[in-house]
Design brief:
Layout: H1 2-8, E1 12-17, H2 20-25, E2 31-34, H3 41-49, H4 55-66, E3 86-89, E4 97-102, E5 114-122, H5 137-150, E6 154-159, H6 167-170, E7 172-173, E8 176-177, H7 181-190, E9 194-196, H8 206-215, E10 219-221, E11 225-227, E12 236-237, E13 239-245, E14 251-260, E15 269-271, H9 274-285, E16 291-297, H10 300-309, E17 315-317, E18 325-329, E19 332-336, E20 343-352, E21 357-366, H11 375-394, E22 402-406, E23 410-411, H12 414-417, H13 423-435, E24 441-445, E25 454-455, E26 458-461, H14 462-468, E27 474-481, H15 482-494, E28 502-505, E29 507-510, E30 513-516, E31 519-520, E32 526-532, E33 554-562, H16 563-575
Parallel strand pairs: 4-13, 5-6, 6-9, 9-10, 10-12, 14-16, 16-17, 17-19, 24-32
Antiparallel strand pairs: 1-4, 2-3, 5-20, 7-8, 11-15, 13-14, 18-19, 20-21, 22-26, 23-25, 24-28, 27-32, 27-33, 29-30, 30-31
Helix pairs in contact: 3-4, 5-7, 5-11, 7-11, 13-16
The structure holds zinc ion (ZN).
Zinc ion binds next to loops.
Length: about 575
Amino acid sequence: MKNLIRLSSPVLLTLVWGGSALAQNMDGCQASVTVQPGDTLGTIAKRELGSSAAYTNIVAATNRNAATDSSFATISNPNVIEPGQKLCVAIGMSPPRVVERTKAPAPPLNSGNTTNITFLQINDVYEMTPVGGQGGVARLATLDKELTARNPNTFSVLSGDLFSPSALGTAKVDGERLAGKQMVAAMNAFDLDFATLGNHEFDIKEEQFLERIKESETQWFVSNAFKKDGTPFDNISQNLIFSVTDNAGQDVTVGMFGVMLDSNPADYVSYTDPFEAAGAHINVLKDNVDILIGVTHLSMAQDMKLAGMYPDIDLIMGGHEHENAIEYVGGTPITKADANARTAYIIDLTYDHGSDSVTIKPTLKQVTADIPDDPVVASVVNFWLEQAFEGFRAQGFEPTKRVTNVTDALDGTEASVRNKTTVLTQIIADSMLSNASGADIALYNGGSIRIDDTIAPGPITEYDVIRILPFGGAIITVDMTGSMLQRTLDQGVKNSGIGSYLHTAGVSGTLGNWSVNGTALDSGGTYTVAINDFLLTGYEQNLEFLKAEGNPDINQKATHDDLRKALITELQKKYGSE
Ligand SMILES: [Zn+2]
């Protein structure tokens, strides 16, 4: 099936490594540092590159520079460095990956001295199928074909976040969670050309991440995220260059770098500063390309700063924010589409060979039922959907079953659920209290909610509930000492901004001043608390003290339903059952 899809595409893709002229620029240092008393290579690497293991990059780069510049130290033993020695801090840049793409030229492409290139930009795509009637990879494929028919030099780009979070990714197929396998399969069928990494790529385990990249037929690139030791991931380049040829035989060369924010510090990843990394790659690319593009996964404020710092950038295709947006900084457009391909940006670039300038016209396109499914991509999507649904059925859910019709917007975005109460976070807390008979209060961590999206008012299915709480888990009642409860509630507030921020039912008050069902918390008392089983494992950040095993302040009493079952019941209680 995959071969059929590839045959239908006019894209020929070959990868070669950059020539020596480009490679030479790469020997430059990101920064030079002078060794201070007390420094070791490990502490310098940690400080400059975020990982002590990256000291090997510093040794290699310093020795390489010492060969031609005697102001640099020569390091023969990494355990011995002297104060005053000058070292080269390099991010271990490899030569740019040159992607040769030849698309069949078509007459309307070229008029006189110009060449047209089109990008189809998507970002933050976790769902293969439409959400709330919008999006869907099969529709994107049709759109891509239409654009390619109009301009053969059309390329699809994902500005980060694909492998996670998604409910389907948590489904177990053949005993293993899909963990983004379904998204890679869908994007391979769609024939996604280029992608940079987003923070959610690192939600999954290292083996899963490496496997996904290996399975992917997309050209991935990122300029500021590396393995823990500071070296690049296999099959991910740090930037890329490709050329297109128009029907008049004129070439245009495009260079791309990719930078991302470090909001998901997984233990197998190290980051360098996105602005410094962008600067280093822009320096390498700018003299070798006609058009310079940043594909980013940053906040809009960071994207605007980036565009302001480096006027050489012609276009920034960004992600991370889930709402569509466009900003211009000094004439450079920064585009973001809506999450889950509810919209896509179609960006037409016209390169003028005479003036060496580029005109950029972005158009936001709604991805709706007006665009028919591409049948081949739809069949791939449906295959994986059915695989995942079988996994959920094995756990006792019927994903397609309608739960109720909600009349509120259910805000499950990370920015909200890790910082404040929303209608959704409160319904979940209430559902735990309803489900766990005899409990005084309920509490759970905001990180249990993984949808990172808002469900609009309207019908909601069991699959939507799985999207909200993909990992589920049992509700447990425990007897907890008042002092332990006080400590837990205080810490829950202090965890604002991260997944261990706590949501509660039956509790009111603020740090150090809590009430349980209207009465001041008695630190000498005992309370019956409904809590999600994950917190009792002691694995939650800053809440390790909730580990139940051998804990004199926590006494497990009873196990109740899965969180998702409780939520289904609570939604029906609040909005009516159908
Ligand atoms: Zn993101």
